[in-house]
Every structure is written in C-alpha cells, then in structure tokens.
C-alpha cells in the first residue's frame, strides 16, 4: 500500500469508554475523527486525523438547505486473537463513489479512503468492543459545505469518518420483528436517489416509520413508488423471503439500495447451493405463498442489524405470522455464518475479512 | 401582536455591504441571524438574534446523515417610500409547518416565527437593496441536530433565519430560457417528499440539472415518477402553459411543491377573468398543442425568479420554440403585477404586502 500523507493530531485527553456490554447504537463516539477537504480546482486535500470535535459551518452551507451528501456504514470487529478486522470495506468505498456520482459529488480515491479509515481505527483500536454482538460502527460521510443558496452542486466538500462502539441495532436482537406493509408513503422511485446512500432517502422514511411504531411495528416494508405493488426494502434493510424451498429477493432496480450484506447473503446461498433468485416480488405473491403454506421465512439484511428475521407482516387489515414467529433455519444459518466470518470465529473462504494491521 | 421574547445581541462590527446594483444570488449574508432551539419535553426555547456566525455541530448530528430538515424562501423589498415589505409571509410559515409534519419535525408557532423574521429584518434593514430587480432573500430553515446515528426523528432541532441581499436568480432575468424535458431522472413521486420543502428533493435534482446545463439548457422540466408522462415542475419552480387562450398548470398531486407564487398567479388570473385550470397535463399534450399552433406561452413561477418564461422546450430529439422565443403577454403582465405588488409600486388589492414593523 502506498504511504499516503495524513496529518495526525492526537487527543491530549481520552474520553471515558462506555461499558462494552451495555452499548446502544450510534450514541457514543471515539477520541478521533478523519477529515479531508475538497476545493474545486484543487481536488481533495488536507487529509488529517484530529480529536473528535464539533464541525463549524456557515449557516448557508449547502448541506443545510439542499442535502448534497452521501454516507457509508460498516463495522470493525475484534477477534479472539485481539486483531481488529473489517468486513468487505472495499465494497463500501465503491458504493460511496457510486453515491457520489448520483449526488454530483467529486469521487474519492477508494484506496486512500480505505487507508485513512484503517489508520483512524488503528489509532482508536481500544474502542473496538470485544463483547459478543458488539462492534465498532464506522461512518464515512461527505457533505457540501459551500455557503451558497443557489441550487447547484457545491464547489467545496468535506469528507469525514467517525467511529462509534455499538451494541445490537434492534432491541430485539436476532429475534423476529413485526413489520407493517406501507401503503401510503414511498421511500424512493426509479430515477430518484433510492440506490444512492444519501440523506434524503432516510428523511423520506421517517414519517412512515413513526406511524408504524405508533401501531406497534418495528419497521415498514416499502413497496415500489409506481404501482405500490412490488416489494422494495424493509426499513433501511434489503429483504429476503424463502418460498417453497427457494430464497427470493427483489432485483436491483434503481430504487433499492445495493446492500453489501445483501450481496454477501446471495454469495453465501450460492456457495451453499441453496436456490436463490433475484427478481420482482409482489406483496400479493407473498400473501398468496403464505396462504398456500409455502412462505417459510422472511428476513431483512443490513450492516447495522446483519440479519433481522420478520415474524409478522401486516397488510390491508391482514396479519400473517411467518414460521410461527420464530427465526427460520436459513436466517439463523446466514446470521451465524456472516457474524462468524465478520468476527473471525469462522473460516473466511471468500476473503471478505480485512485486517486493520 | 404579542410581545414575544427574543434576546438580541447586536454585532459590534458591521460587514461591508456589496454594491446593490451588482448583486448575485445567495452568496452574501447580513450582519445578524435568528436562532431558536428545540428540546424534546421542553419545546422551542432560547429565541435569539445574534451576529451572523458559523454553526457548531457534532459530526454525528442527524442533519449530516439523514437529512431531517425543512426550509422556506421569501423576499423583502424596499418601497420607494423606504418602507420594508414582505410578500405573503404567512403563507411561508404555514407551508413550513406542513413540511415539518412530513419530516416529523415539531411545528413552530407561525405567528411567533413571523414576528422573529420581521424583527431580524428590521435590525438588518439597511441590507434591503433598493435597486430594481433586487430584494432581501429570507431563508428560514430547521434542522435536526441531535448526535445520533440511528434512523429516527431527532430529539433536538435548531430553527434559524438568515438574510441575503440578492439580484436576479437567473442571469437571463425575465428573458426566456431553454428547457430540456427530463426523461431519466425523477424529482419526486406521490408518497415521497415532493410537496415538502426539504433538502432531499433538491439533492435529487442536481444530477439532471448538471446534465441539462452541459447540453446548454437552463433547467429541466420534470415529469411524474410513475408514468414519465405528466408534467410536474420546471427546475425548482411550478410551471404554467397558455394553450389556445386558456392558462393551465399541473394540479397539486402530492409530489409537486405548493408554490406561493403559483397560488398568487392563479389568484391574479382569476381576478383578471383569464381562464385558468389546474389539472393533469401530459408532455404529449404540450407538443401536440405546439404542432396545432395553440401553445401560446409557457413560464415557471417561484420566489427566487418570480416568473421565468420558457423560450424553448426540448424532448425526445425535438425542439419547439414557444412564442418565437419571446416573453409572452401573460407572462409579462403577471411579472409586472407581482413585482409591482411586491415592491410597493402597484396597488395591492389582495392584501398580500406585509409591512416590516
């Protein structure tokens, strides 16, 4: 690896670390952060690791008004041998650049970004928790910081990486959750930003999520924006179903996120010779499969939760219970294999695990 | 009006003002800004006017990651009598709260917000330019500032108002612009956030805008996200057409913005007894009307540009020139009436003009 130039200013004081067996998600941050600036004509410059501290921005900065921003999410784990490892971080960097293209943000050097990310984690490696189910959540993000109220791409940007030791994303852990099929609100539509990891998609999802929670559901199942008929995602995860022995998941259609956990699940299933198909799936089909006794499992996949089994689905006044509300065999097998590879407890035949020296 | 409590801390130094006859859009800001905080359980609190200064935020603040934010835009004008006036500001406050609802942001007290806005402008009233075509652009915005990486509504928010003396939004001024009909990208779809004034809609528009500009167009004409057939908006404006003596504009359908200029144009046309209809309009219909010799005018409406005539429309390889590329009579009449009312040069039979102090 090239010896990229990153200025490092270490924190003179260390924060107190939280108890690693009592971590929640995304509320505590480590001692340092990575920052790099972009200026039109000059490119990306001034890469630095500095103490975790507030950002100062002009109130007219584009991020506040027009949301020109992208982000990524990945996790670092501590193995039994006290090594720190990442899961497919190159995939996150590739996706970050795909998101950049959609949002008119200048691309980053993926290799350099990964180098910076590893260097930051290595400086804060004592923050990587070693309790089962925990990890160090890594959040790279880029935002437009030019003070300008016209609607056009910014001339300046900031690329940052922050780190947060986390426990399970869902209080339920790997236990099945209750999901409402969303029939009013739409997360994204083809031609929009649904397949980019950008703030607006998440802002758009809040209202449906809030209403679903008020009715006792954990998440919503999103349908397509055109016909309100085809399944897209569940909450902020991709979704899989097992129907009559075959696993199916919505095909990449321009409006769903190209999940790295999704991709890994597909590769695992192929490796195991379990039949799996990416295609359009209507919500009708799922309910019909249930009534025919063929809907065997359903689960969401994402970096934060890894695998989140769906125990109940509610749609148009009808509630169906999947696999008697229990975690299915395939969900369990995938969860164990993925987390096993991620944490270093299993062999990694795919070369997915990457050491943070 | 109630005497609301706002702490005022005046700037000890004054910035140099730009030449009012050389203003661009949204690059220069006044000496002061308004800030108010929201804390769950406490409500909105600590309303203050302070010197214009950078915002400090935790890098994990929700605004950077999930775009939970809304904004407004309106203009203050200086009349010949040196009075400062606003145009229908109550409509902006109402819309701000409608946007708040969609984005799960706590509502503001509209009357208080208007009081604060007037007080801020009155403190910075020397910044209201008095040259024809100029105004003081007013930007209220609210954003989520809680440091939390889970996807859910924030427990804390900041409401701010900043002011910027501006010239014409388009370099072309009231001259007709060239517009490309967008057939790949989509701004918004029903069930999404298209009718809220929120960052993600604008982020989603950048790519199409950038590609259109590279091909020599000023803006794109957005079609609906479901069928790519019906007209929605032009750039970040609402759009009107005059066909065979009748003015038509897309009906409010959940995905287009409820423009205040749009509303005012409709009311002006009714007042003048000019036939006007809000309904679904397909892009086919516009091109057919052109070929039948019945497409008489086309124009965008919005706070920034007021009226922006469309001189050329490009779609599927065909370019049509509207009204020989000249500003139409209705466009001109509306522009003159609206700006006349806004600046105090015309009578205001509707009570749209509101004095600051």
UniProtKB/TrEMBL annotation, chains A, B:
Write down the EC number: 2.6.1.42
Keyword annotations from UniProtKB, A to Z: Amino-acid biosynthesis, Aminotransferase, Branched-chain amino acid biosynthesis, Pyridoxal phosphate, Transferase
Entry GO MF terms: branched-chain-amino-acid transaminase activity
Pathway field of the UniProt record reads: Amino-acid biosynthesis; L-isoleucine biosynthesis; L-isoleucine from 2-oxobutanoate: step 4/4; Amino-acid biosynthesis; L-valine biosynthesis; L-valine from pyruvate: step 4/4; Amino-acid biosynthesis; L-leucine biosynthesis; L-leucine from 3-methyl-2-oxobutanoate: step 4/4
Q: Which residues carry this modification: N6-(pyridoxal phosphate)lysine?
A: 197
User: Record's Pfam families?
Assistant: Aminotran_4
So which domain of life are we looking at? Bacteria
Q: Which cofactors are required for activity?
A: pyridoxal 5'-phosphate
Please list the reactions this protein catalyses: L-valine + 2-oxoglutarate = 3-methyl-2-oxobutanoate + L-glutamate; L-isoleucine + 2-oxoglutarate = (S)-3-methyl-2-oxopentanoate + L-glutamate; L-leucine + 2-oxoglutarate = 4-methyl-2-oxopentanoate + L-glutamate
A single GO BP annotation from the record?
amino acid biosynthetic process
Q: Which family is this sequence assigned to?
A: Belongs to the class-IV pyridoxal-phosphate-dependent aminotransferase family.
- Which named protein is this? Branched-chain-amino-acid aminotransferase
């Amino acid at each position: 690896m090239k010896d990229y130039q990153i200025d490092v200013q270490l924190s003179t004081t260390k924060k107190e670390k939280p108890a690693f067996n009592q971590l929640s998600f995304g509320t505590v941050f480590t001692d340092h952060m990575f920052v790099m600036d972009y200026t039109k004509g000059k490119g990306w410059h001034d890469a630095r690791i500095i103490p975790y501290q507030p950002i100062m921005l002009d109130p007219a900065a584009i991020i506040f008004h027009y949301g020109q921003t992208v982000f990524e999410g990945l996790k670092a784990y501590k193995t039994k041998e006290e090594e720190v490892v990442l899961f497919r971080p190159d995939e996150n960097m590739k996706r970050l650049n795909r998101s950049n293209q959609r949002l008119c943000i200048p691309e980053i050097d993926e290799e350099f970004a990964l180098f910076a990310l590893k260097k930051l984690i290595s400086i804060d490696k004592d923050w990587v928790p070693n309790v089962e189910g925990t990890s160090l959540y890594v959040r790279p993000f880029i935002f437009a910081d030019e003070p300008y109220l016209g609607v056009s791409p910014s001339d300046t940007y900031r690329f940052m990486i922050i780190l947060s030791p986390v426990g399970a994303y869902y209080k339920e852990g790997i236990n099945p959750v209750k999901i409402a099929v969303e029939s009013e609100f739409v997360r994204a539509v083809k031609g929009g930003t649904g397949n980019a990891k950008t703030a607006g998609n998440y802002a758009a999802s809040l209202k449906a999520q809030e209403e679903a929670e008020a009715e006792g559901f954990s998440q919503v199942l999103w349908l397509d924006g055109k016909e309100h008929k085809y399944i897209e995602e569940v909450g902020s995860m991709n979704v899989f179903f097992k129907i009559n022995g075959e696993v199916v998941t919505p095909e990449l259609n321009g409006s769903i996120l190209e999940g790295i956990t999704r991709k890994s699940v597909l590769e695992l299933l192929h490796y195991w010779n379990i039949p799996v198909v990416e295609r359009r799936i209507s919500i009708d089909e799922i309910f019909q499969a249930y009534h025919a006794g063929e809907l065997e499992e359903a689960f969401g996949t994402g970096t934060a939760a890894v695998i989140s089994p769906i125990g109940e689905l509610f749609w148009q006044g009808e509630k169906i219970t999947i696999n008697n509300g229990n975690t299915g065999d395939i969900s369990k097998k995938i969860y164990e294999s993925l987390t096993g590879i991620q944490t270093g407890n299993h062999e990694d035949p795919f070369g997915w695990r990457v050491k943070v020296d």
